[in-house]
Amino acid sequence: MAKIISANVYYVLIMITLGIESSCDETSVAILNGGSVLVSLTHSQEEHALYGGVVPEVASRAHLEKIDGLVKRALSECGLAPNDLELIAVTDSPGLAGALLVGISFALGLHTAYGIPVTGVNHLEGHICSLFIDRPNLTPPFIVLLASGGHTAIYNYQSYNNCKLLGQTVDDAAGEAFDKVGKLLGFTYPAGRAIEEEAAKAVNHDQHQDHKKITFPTAKFTSPEKSYCFSFSGLKTAVKNFISAQGEKYIDTNRPEICAAFQKNVVNTLVDNLEAAAKAHGVKTVAAAGGVACNGYLRRELEKRFGADNVMLPAPRLCTDNGAMIAMAGYMMHNSGRTRFPKMDPGRGI
Ligand SMILES: Nc1ncnc2c1ncn2[C@@H]1O[C@H](COP(=O)(O)OP(=O)(O)OP(=O)(O)O)[C@@H](O)[C@H]1O
Ligand SMILES: [Mg+2]
After folding, report:
1. Are residues 42 and 27 in contact, defined by beta-carbon separation less than 8 angstroms?
2. Which of 48, 148, 299 to mutate to test the pocket of ligand 1 (most atoms within 8 A of CB)?
3. Index of the ligand 1 atom closest to the CA of residue 25
C-alpha cells in the first residue's frame, strides 16, 4: 500500500481493488492493481433467453449462486487472500433492486469480516470509467456516448471531478432497441450481436448503399434543450410495421438488409449527436462505452467521422457489464477523494 504525504495532506493510495457488478444479468467480479486488470470473471445468466428479457427474481437467485465462487476464484487466480484487498467497489445503482442487493450484501460481508473499505459505485459511471482501464494517458476533456441496454446518453467529461449529462434518450435505450427489434426478427435476447452479424451479410453494408431501399425514419428534436437527446421507440415501431406489412417470406429472404438498415439508422443517430455535442463544446476527443459500443459498425463509423486518434473505445469485453469497470470507478473516486458524479441518470429526458 503506497502512502502519499504532501504538505499537510495525507492519504493512502489504494492499489488492490475488488470490483463487484450485479445490477442486471451479469455476475462479474474483477481485481485491479491500480488501473490494470489482474483478473476479471463474468457469469452471464443465459436463463433469461427463455423469457425474451431479464426476469428480476431469476437474476437475483442466479447472482446468489455464483458470487461467492467467482470472488474466491478471482482471489486464487491472483494468489491473493481477502486481507490483501484494499478497497471493494460495488455497483449500488441503477439496476434491479434484488440483484443489486446481492452484490452490496456480499461486499458488506467482506467489510465486516476483514475491515476492507467499501465504495458504492453508480453503474453508468462504471461504464464511463471502463475507458480509463489500461489507459493511464487518457486525460479529459472528452465527450462520451454511453449506449447500453438500459441507457443512452451523452456526457461532457470535463475533468476527473466534473462529468455533466448533456442529453439522453427520452424512451428506449439503443441496446433495448437492438434487443426489441431482434426479438421481432426471431433472435434471442440479447440480440445486439446477432443483429450486427446478420447485418454484415447484407450486400455493401459498409459502403452506405441503400440496402435494397429499406430505410427507417429517424427521430429529431427541434428544441435546443433536447439537442443531444435520443428517441428510438418510433424506429422500433417502424421496423415492426415494416415486418407486418412485408410478411414472413420477404423477411426470411431480406433479414440481413433489414438488420443493416436498422443498425445504420441507430449508429447514424448516435454518431450525429456525439458529433454535434463535441462541436458545440469545442472538444476534439470523443469516446463510447456500454454494451452497444461493442458494435463494430459503430466503432468504424466513429473512427471514420472523428479520425482514429480522436476516438477512445474500451476493449469490447469491457463494454458490456463487468466488475473491472466498477473497480476502476471506485479506485478513481477513492484516490481523488471525490464522491460520485451528480445527475448521471436523472430519469428519461433532460
Ligand atoms: N455488437 C453489438 N451491437 C449492438 N448492441 C450490442 C452489441 N453487443 C451487445 N449489445 C447490446 O448491449 C446491451 C448490453 O449492454 P450492457 O451490459 O452495457 O447493458 P445493461 O447493463 O443491461 O444496461 P445498463 O448498463 O444501461 O444498465 C444489450 O442491449 C445488447 O443487445
Ligand atoms: Mg450496463
Report:
1. yes
2. 148
3. 22
Asked, colleague to colleague, whether 14-130+321-336 and 139-313 share their fold, the answer is yes
> pLDDT digit string (tens) for 198-215?
999 997 554 444 455 799
Domain at 14-130+321-336, CATH from 3.40.640.10, 3.30.420.40, 3.90.25.10, 3.60.10.10: 3.30.420.40
The residue whose CA has the least distance to atom 24 of ligand 1 is: 150
* Annotated domain spans of the chain: 14-130+321-336, 139-313
pLDDT of residue 14: 73
Q: Which CATH class is domain 139-313?
A: alpha beta
Measured CA distances, 254 to 13, 201, 206, 245, 248 (Å): 56, 10, 17, 14, 10
Shortest CA distance to 195 belongs to which of 205, 208, 209? Answer: 205
Q: Whose CA is nearest to atom 26 of ligand 1?
A: 150
Q: For a substitution probing ligand 1, which of 45, 172, 270, 321 has the most ligand atoms within 8 Å of its CB?
A: 321
